[in-house]
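anyone seen this seq b4? input:
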Amino acid sequence: MTEPRELHIRVPVLARIEGGAALSIRIHDNHIEQADLNIFEPPRLFEQLLAGREYHEVPDMVARICGICPVAYQMSAVTALETLFELDAGDWVQRMRRVFYCGEWIQSHALHIHLLAAPDFLGFGSAPEMARDYPDEVRRGLELQALGNAIIRLFGGRSVHPVGARVGGFSRAPRRQQVQQLVTQLEQALPQAEALLRWTAALELPDATQDFCCVALRHPDEYPMLRGRLVSSHGLDCAIEHFEQEIREFQVPHSTALHALLDDKPYVVGPIARMNLNHDRLPQVTRTILDESGIHFPSHNMYHSIIARAAEIHVAILEALELLQDYSEPAHASYTPHPRAGTGYGCSEAPRGILYHRYTTDERGNILAARIIPPTSQNQAAMEQDLVESLHTFGLQQPEQALRARAESVIRNYDPCISCATHFLRLRVEHD
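predicted toks r here
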């Protein structure tokens, strides 16, 4: 018979994650009674800061919300405002915005896979430790991240908090010679992306099958990124403007980030949700690599998220190459908006999942109200549910260090951007 015990595990700061927060777990009689992801960062109140600003200020302001996924914030914002102003920015702008977004997927996913998540599966406490035994893999990650940053810098002027995006298009169009140089870099990186996908598929990942609801965008012709309808694995299919009618967002006492539920249940957004709902939209070459590696989507193992990220790097490089191959400089890099009063909605697929924006403006385009729902806050309830299921499966009587390591790997699986959602991880486990 197992003796009752009280166990406190404290991790003041969780390494290899964006932001800071705490995790509190209470175990009684071999059962988890409480598993709270305590996000305690003070809210930065961006939605209120946007009120009263002019529409053209919004892209630069929302880019400051996140240093890892500023492009997503900009693209959701400009989509919402252009829809409201009934502005069609044209084919060139839409194609180049997709390339711009590909850069963000590449840099964010490469950072997460090589520096944040892979050490969990290879038995290392950090990426520098891992680099001693896997120098080529870490170098590959840094090179892919640099490639993504180069794409963002080409269109945005800089890779962190870019300033080139605007309502109506871009501040300027890249020169043809610049694009040709980037195409060469993309061609050289494609074998690296294929090797990465095969490498992640060969990792010894925990077998942790769960039943979870996936939510993502879906488009009839494209792998989702900038447009599409909101769909779920449980039957949801609606236009973006109905997002707030379907998703219930609410406050919980232990978090300064809001929780979100669909049909009063947690749901998952991000790479594995996109892959599960849109695997038929993958390029054939990406699907072939996955098939040859023995990985099949839809998958109900959240640890396959790292493979989904690698697949999306491969997709993003292929997409960027295709869209830039016959590049020509446009007559106009942007079109002039004609503001009007009303409400506009935008949603795009940030590296971590769907990022929803809503703006209400007056007749001059001044912002009267704003609503931003980031992917990490949408995943928060699912992370807590995943912790309970994963730790029960793992075994609650495991040693303290093993429980903590498993809990941290579960959270890192979601690649949470906690400062967006407002940071992680002080972990306390109590056994009664």
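The chain is about 45% helix and 15% strand. Residues 7-17, 423-427 have pLDDT under 50 and may be disordered. kinda curious what u guys think
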